[in-house]
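Researcher: I'm preparing a figure for a lab meeting and need a structural model of a single chain. I don't have an experimental structure, so a prediction will have to do for now. The sequence is pasted below. Please return the structure as tokens so I can convert it later.
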Amino acid sequence: MYAKLVINGKIETVTGLHIGTGNGYSAIGAADSPVIRDIKDHLPMIPGSSLKGKLRTLLARKYSASAKKPDEDSDDIKDLFGSMKKRGKLIFNDMFIDRKCIEELRETGVYSTTEVKFENTINRLSSVANPRQIERVIRGCLFDMQIICDVTEESEAEKSIGLLSEGMSLLQLDYLGGSGSRGYGRIAFRDLEVTCISGEISEKVLENCSSLLKGVEAE
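Model: Understood. Here is the structure written out token by token.
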């Protein structure tokens, strides 16, 4: 058999989120480290690769602690996220900010989805301060999330969604993006649902997969 499951939901920023552009250049008067944005509407986005990489890292810490490289991860992790030899079952789409969220922010008098946080690093020998400006997505923003999961054996569907759900639970206790130890990047998953968009999956299996995802939101 062959089927595709789609997991839809929202990612809510619980604290300020910084996923940078990776560009060392900063224009005069701009933040030293801007967030990555969708080039079409210039609004903040979350790359699918950022979510995928963080989920894999957290699961690898738990189940492949001795692995030095991704190809040394456990078979279950490689099955979901892929390896050098084959692609994984999961496809992570880039995540864009929910337009309804922008409207709700404006109703409360908030007209920007980002803020600039000023930080200092102090040289311990000279005591000289090195100020910098970090742009981050404000708390309370919602991003539309979609993950697609390939299913080749119905009996494996619950196992795949179960491992993905476990990674999501771990992420809610960790952080996404940079500067997590300073309070950045706390997120929560909202409105999670799973549907079969291609092929056939029994209603019982879909119900069980849905329960696993709902368990993430309940935590």
